[in-house]
Design brief:
This protein is α+β, with helices and mostly antiparallel strands. The protein contains 13 helices and 27 strands.
Length: 460
């Protein structure tokens, strides 16, 4: 058996053993209610928009409290201002399709400081480029003047400095600086309590269908994961010469497991949907009935391989193999004019790159033009969901409800009803399926011929 086949046999057996084959909903995308209320207030436009894009999950931006710039008001938005906007948007969506999940957004490892603290920190080193920085001694002194609720969970480096994020929002001539500080969640600490407060606001006050959270696992870059303010009882540096412990510190990915589980259980016990950025890194979270993805777009340059060529194998997308097999978007804007001119093309090549890794495609704020440069359709992406995984493979996924593939092969359809086949090209436009169907013993055999790695098909 080829090594590739051995790998997928292993993956699929582990997925069954770990009980991670639960239904994936979609298509998914974010919509900012402070930018797009005109869409939600025009029922016919909204109806046409949802018919074209067939969204199954909508995450309403802005985030609660963090990255909460209100593009209509030109300043950060409060919870009191956000609540009616989200409720109005959700009511508009539900009036057209009540099955669509409308969810709110919170941040996992960054929290916005009070407005006066943000201003003071920004003005201490004005006009820096957007990015993440360690607080200087003077900035550390500034921060101590403010009574913030995260004093027990500020992420601290080896030198005792905290880390902050500077980013800018606004439009046109407006460049509005915003400052957030890095934290980590652990059972009972300030960030754990804050998560639950944000979740209660969204679920119980706003009444959304669920919750999206960014950077949930906290198991990525060392400077965003480890904190040297305390010891978690496990994580240490060892002096290789002496074998002695050289330093004790805290792994935010490890100590946060209980807090993450608590947040997920709160949402799920309310009968709501939960989605998170980053895949689980501890067994306790592996089979929790929530959805996970990562931002795999950063591992690809769709212009680096030819149309019809198999996309390169990358490690980061493979993190989905023992969780929900979803990758978040591939934004054409990243490629400048090339991306704009080939907008639909970039989206479809992104979806094919994901399928090469056995994963499905979620939108990331992308809108394929109907006309002009970059025009196309959403094609097979609109037919990928819902899908309850049965098997993942290189270039194809077998689900209980449908099969998604970008490679030719013969598939078994275990149902007496004759399947429908949808095929789309690299612009997302429909093309005639090249398939032979035959029925054998109450099942169907589908011999499907595609332009491998240049077309996507859904058998449903």
């Amino acid at each position: 058996m080829p090594a590739e086949a051995d790998y997928w046999t292993f993956v699929n057996q582990v997925r069954r053993d770990w009980d991670v084959n639960f239904t994936v909903y979609g298509p998914f995308d974010y919509i900012d209610v402070t930018r797009r209320m005109d869409l939600f207030r025009d029922r016919e436009r909204l109806k046409a928009y949802l018919a074209r894009k067939r969204l199954g999950v909508i995450a309403f931006a802005p985030w609660v409290d963090y990255d909460n710039y209100n593009y209509a008001a030109g300043r950060p938005t409060t919870r009191a201002e956000l609540k009616p906007l989200m409720q109005e948007a959700m009511a508009a969506v539900k009036s057209i399709d009540s099955s669509i999940f409308c969810i709110g957004c919170i941040e996992g490892n960054l929290v916005s400081l009070p407005a006066d603290a943000q201003r003071a920190l920004y003005e201490s080193v004005p006009d820096r480029p957007a990015g993440q920085y360690q607080l200087s001694p003077d900035q550390m002194s500034l921060l101590k003047r403010y009574d913030i609720q995260w004093k027990d969970c500020l992420l601290q480096n080896r030198e005792g400095q905290y880390r902050y994020e500077l980013y800018y929002r606004g439009g046109g001539d407006v460049r509005f600086p915003m400052v957030a500080i890095a934290v980590y969640a652990a059972p009972g600490n300030g960030q754990h309590r804050y998560w639950l407060d944000e979740a209660r606001f969204l679920v119980e006050e706003v009444g959304v269908d669920g919750l999206y959270i960014d950077q949930f696992s906290l198991a990525f870059n060392d400077d965003q994961r480890y904190s040297y303010d305390s010891w978690d009882g496990t994580t240490v540096d060892v002096d290789l010469k002496t074998g002695q412990i050289a330093r004790r510190y805290t792994d935010g990915g490890l100590v946060g497991a209980g807090a993450r589980r608590d947040l997920a259980e709160y949402v799920l016990k309310k009968g709501r949907y939960m989605l998170a950025n980053t895949f689980p890194v501890v067994p306790d979270m592996q089979s929790v009935r929530m959805h996970r993805f990562n931002e795999s777009e950063w591992t690809f340059d769709v212009f680096s391989w030819s149309d019809g060529e198999k996309p390169p194998l990358r490690a980061y997308p493979c993190e989905c193999h023992f969780s929900t097999p979803i990758g978040l978007g591939l934004r054409p804007e990243r490629y400048g004019d090339k991306g704009s001119e080939g907008y639909a093309h970039v989206i479809m090549k992104g979806a094919i790159a994901y399928l090469r890794h056995g994963m499905l495609y979620y939108h990331y704020g992308s809108e394929i033009p109907e006309n002009g440069p970059g025009a196309g359709e959403y094609g097979a992406i609109n037919h990928m969901f819902p899908l309850t995984p049965v098997e993942l493979h290189e270039g194809w996924i077998v689900g209980k409800e449908r099969i998604v593939t970008c490679v030719s092969r013969t598939f078994e359809w275990p149902d007496a009803r004759k399947p429908e086949i949808v095929v789309s090209d690299l612009a997302g436009r429909a093309v005639a399926p090249q398939a032979t169907l035959s029925q054998e013993g109450g099942k169907w055999k589908v011999d499907l011929r595609l332009k491998d790695w240049a077309e996507i098909a859904v058998i449903e």
